[in-house]
Amino acid sequence: MSHLYLILILIPIVLLALRALWNHYRQAFVLRILGLPNPKYPLFIEKNIFVEMQDGIRLATDIYRPKIDEALPVIMLRTPYDKDSPLYRYDVMAQFFASLGYVVLVQDVRGKYLSEGKFQPLINEEDDGYDTIKWAAGQPWSNGKCGILGYSYLGSCAWLPLKKAPSALQTIIPMFINQNSYSAWIDKGVPYLKDMLVWLYKHHEKEAREYSTKELDDIIRQLPVIKLDSRLAKEMKTYQDWIRHVGGDEEFWGRTTLKPSEERVELPVLYVGGWFDKFVDDTIRDFSLTLARAEPGSLASKCRLIVGAWGHDPSQTFRELKFPKNADFKNQYVVFLKWFEIFLKDRPYDFDEANPIEYYLMGKNVWRQTSQWPPPETQKQQWYLNSKGNANTKRGDGELTESLPETNMSDSYIYDPDNPVPSIGSKMLYGDGWEGPREQSMVVSRHDVLVYQSPKLEADLTVTGDNSVTLCVSTTAPDTDFFVKVCDVYPNGKAYFIQSGYIRMRYLESLTKPLRIESGKVYKLNIPMGSIAHTFLKGHRLQLQVTSSDFPNHGRNLNTGWDNEFDTQAKKALQTVYHGPEHPSLLELTVFQD
Predict the structure, then answer these.
(1) Cross-strand partners of 523
(2) Closest Cα partner for 420 from 264, 272, 551?
(3) Within a domain: residue 368?
């Protein structure tokens, strides 16, 4: 009986030991695959320590510490997505850094999961981030140096405390996010409708909520847009606030935005973005402005930028175009570790200071480095729109030519807001698999999409930089939209999304003073498309699509001239694109000269 009792006592002990051994070797195996060092230290983990903010609200925090008697630097992750999430597995990241000699804090932000208070997206992250940094720097296990690792919303949690310049914060790694909360959710006056609605529905409450894709797809087409939240569930204050401020009210959005023009970034920042992530253009701009304003030799001058062939979820594999293993996001963990060792453990800085940008060149599928963006070896190249003058340009009828057409011509289509062009190929957060470099046959076969293609390229064409489209257009509506998309047409005739741009005509001059468009008048539009790094290979073709909607990525223009977020009616409009000597329409690319 005594032996049986002893066995019963030993069984759970042995199982725990085996589990710990398995976890150790599993972690070591994963680290070896990633080219990272093996764990150095066993860990001490404290769950649900409640850190008090200045106003008395307490935030649930997990602390991962190596079992060594030494004050260590601190790495923070602050999340609204549940610090114990089996999906995001913050514990894996925390254990990795802690096993190499860091204290890692993983914290539920205010009002989420185990933390107290009310969640108001982005509103409290400046103060709560500052308070948490200050608390962590004063703990006996801390050496007073803190860094923040942040992906998506966690990246905003990295940026916003900089407004209060906490002295303990030494560096941040914000990934797939930007400093400007307005442009994160609004595209020059046009809401990123589905992303906004889904993200707020899922995360506005204490805990995440799931949604039915079919139900959402039915609801999001209903009018008015201001009522979509209550039709999906119930009215959400943040959704109402954001929809009512699509014009970019500086006072409203400034509460949750780090303004580079006013708040100089003094820290070394490792910026990370993806070519198919909606935040990539702002990420590049944020980096470039920081570097331009940095004093030579300062810590801010050490900033770096990495842009890969990734969507907002960098682990996502695109359905139709596969990139080789050298594009895998997991290869960057060795860079993140090196970054923290430099700025939190005083390792010598050994990145290439002359080339602070590393980017993935799609098409050729190689990594390149450069001193600036766009790279200095680039120049502008124009491709002019031309056609056979068909009333409804069919696939392949439109042309892109390197010389200006000699004849004035035009192409027209009917834009019907009740039958918008679907967002197939995009930079959406919630694209249901249609985001990224998707094949375009379902789009170009529509009668409301104009398609212009180049001849087969006689040599590789490498585009690295910001691009734009100039369109000379008229409309019968008092307000309408134009959407452009650049695609890579393969020798088999299939076209894949690369880049896009959007403009709402009422905002041609100002977001705060909308225009009323004159029916039939020809307007010259400049539609920026942001940056890309892609080689159109020899034998491929350039394709430019022109249409008037991108739904549900962007909210529809209802063509009435009234407020599109409050209107309950929609009207069709005749859209005309002009090209030729009198009204040249063109695609302007930033081309790299190899």
Answers:
(1) 473
(2) 551
(3) no
- Can you give the pLDDT at residue 319? 87
Q: Is the pLDDT of residue 388 over 70?
A: no
For the segment 178-192, the average pLDDT, to the nearest whole number, is: 96
Could you give the CA distance from residue 438 to residue 195 in angstroms, rounded to a whole number? 18
237 three-class SS = helix
Query: 388: exposed, middle or buried (C-beta count within 10 Å: 0-12, 13-18, 19+)?
Result: exposed
Q: Domain of 353? A: 265-316+324-361
How many CB atoms are closer than 10 A to CB 515?
16
Answer whether residue 234 is part of any domain. yes
pTM of the model: 0.93
Res. 201: pLDDT tops 80 = yes
For residues 105 and 91, what is the distance between their CA atoms, to the nearest angstrom?
10
Mean pLDDT of 467-474: 98
Give me the residues paired with residue 571 across strands.
none
Task: Give the residue carrying structure tokens 């990370």.
Answer: 272
Q: Which tens digits make up the pLDDT trace of 94-135?
A: 999 999 999 999 999 999 999 999 999 999 999 999 999 999
Distance CA 545, CA 395 (A): 10
pLDDT in tens, 335-380: 999 999 999 999 999 999 999 999 999 999 999 999 999 999 999 9
Asked if residue 572 belongs to a domain, the reply is yes
Q: How far apart are CA 111 and CA 109, in angstroms?
A: 6
Hey, which residues does 79 pair with through a beta bridge? Answer: 108
Residue at which a domain ends, from 175, 193, 221: 175
Q: 296 and 236, same structural domain?
A: no
For the chain, the maximum distance between any two Cα atoms, rounded to a whole number of angstroms, is 102
CB 78 within 8 A of CB 109: yes
Whether residue 523 sits in one domain with residue 415: yes
Q: How many domains does the chain have?
A: 5
Q: How far apart are CA 423 and CA 416, in angstroms?
A: 15
For residues 103 and 226, state if they share a domain.
no
**Backbone dihedral region of 89: left (phi > 0), alpha (psi from -120 to 50 degrees) or beta?**
left
